[in-house]
Amino acid sequence: MWEVFAVAGVDATPREWLYETAVACRVIYDWQRADGTYGKQFVTDTYLLPERQLILASYRLAAVLNDLFG
Fold it and tell me: According to the model, what pLDDT value does residue 18 have?
């Protein structure tokens, strides 16, 4: 069941999805601020990463469901 899925034009396994996500999200550690305050500008500057991850997750979920239910 967890063989290779075609996702967004790239064949990948769930293990590869996890690795890709871990690499993409490493940047969040660079975004931390010493004072711990994050305003509207921070959200404006950084919203694309979580948006991209949600879109990828949607495609991956669709691939799994298509595999399960045809």
Answer: 84
Amino acid identity of residue 27, one-letter, is V
The SS3 assignment for 38 reads coil
Judge whether 24 and 49 are in contact, CB under 8 Å. Answer: yes
Number of domains in the chain: 1
> Positive or negative CA dihedral for 7, 11, 13, 15?
negative
Question: Global pTM?
Answer: 0.68
Are 68 and 1 a contacting pair, CB within 8 Å?
yes
pLDDT digit string, tens, across residues 18-31: 888 888 888 888 88
What is the residue range of 24's domain?
5-69
Structure tokens of 21?
A: 């996500």
